[in-house]
Amino acid sequence: MIISLLNGIEIQNPGIFKVEGAAAIIFYFTLYSFIGWLLENSYSFFTKRVFFKPNFLWGPFKPMYGFAPILLVYLIPPNTHWAVVVLLCFFIPTIVEYVSGALLHKLFNRQWWDYSDTPMQLQGHICLPFSLCWGALAIICLQWIHPPLIAFYGVIEPFWAWIWAVAGLYFLADLSLATRRHSLKDLVSDESSNPIQ
C-alpha cells in the first residue's frame, strides 16, 4: 500500500521534487501556517478573550496547519472516492496533530495544547471532537480554499520565484531560534527546580 501511495505521488505530482515543486510547497505552507495562526488565536479570543496564544515559533505561523493541507493536497489524487477523501481528511490532520504534540512534549517536556479534560482523548494530544473539526476544516480547505489559492499562486508565481528561498530560510531560522529558546527555558526551569547544593 505504501509503495502504491508513493507511486501515486510521483504520477500525480511529477514536479514535487523539483525547484518549482519546492517553491509551491513553501508558498502553501506559509499561507496555511499563517491561516492556522489566525484561526487558533481567533478561537482563543472567542473562548478566553486573549488573542495571542503561546506559539512555538516566534513568527505568526502554526506549522501543523501548514503540513496537514500540504499532505492532503499531495496525497489525495483527483477522482478519489469521496469516502476515502473524508477518511483522509479526518486521519491526516489528526496524525499531524498527534505527532506534533508528542514530539513537542518529548523534545521540550511541555504541551502547547492539552485535551486531557476532553472526552475521547489520547495523551492530551488529540481528541475526537477536535479531530472531527479538523476533518470538516480539511474538507472545506480541499473544496473551497485550495482551488483559489492555486489560482493566486499562478498569478504571483513569477514574483514568488524570487523570494521563496528567503521564506524557506526564514522558517529554518525561526525553527532554530524557537528550538533554542524553548530548550533554554527547560534548562532554566530544571536548574531552578533542582538547585545545585
Automatic annotation (TrEMBL):
<protein>
    <recommendedName>
        <fullName>ABC transporter permease</fullName>
    </recommendedName>
</protein>
<feature type="transmembrane region" description="Helical">
    <location>
        <begin position="126"/>
        <end position="145"/>
    </location>
</feature>
<keyword id="KW-0812">Transmembrane</keyword>
<dbReference type="Pfam" id="PF06541">
    <property type="entry name" value="ABC_trans_CmpB"/>
</dbReference>
<feature type="transmembrane region" description="Helical">
    <location>
        <begin position="151"/>
        <end position="173"/>
    </location>
</feature>
<feature type="transmembrane region" description="Helical">
    <location>
        <begin position="56"/>
        <end position="76"/>
    </location>
</feature>
<feature type="transmembrane region" description="Helical">
    <location>
        <begin position="15"/>
        <end position="35"/>
    </location>
</feature>
<keyword id="KW-1133">Transmembrane helix</keyword>
<dbReference type="InterPro" id="IPR010540">
    <property type="entry name" value="CmpB_TMEM229"/>
</dbReference>
<keyword id="KW-0472">Membrane</keyword>
<feature type="transmembrane region" description="Helical">
    <location>
        <begin position="82"/>
        <end position="105"/>
    </location>
</feature>
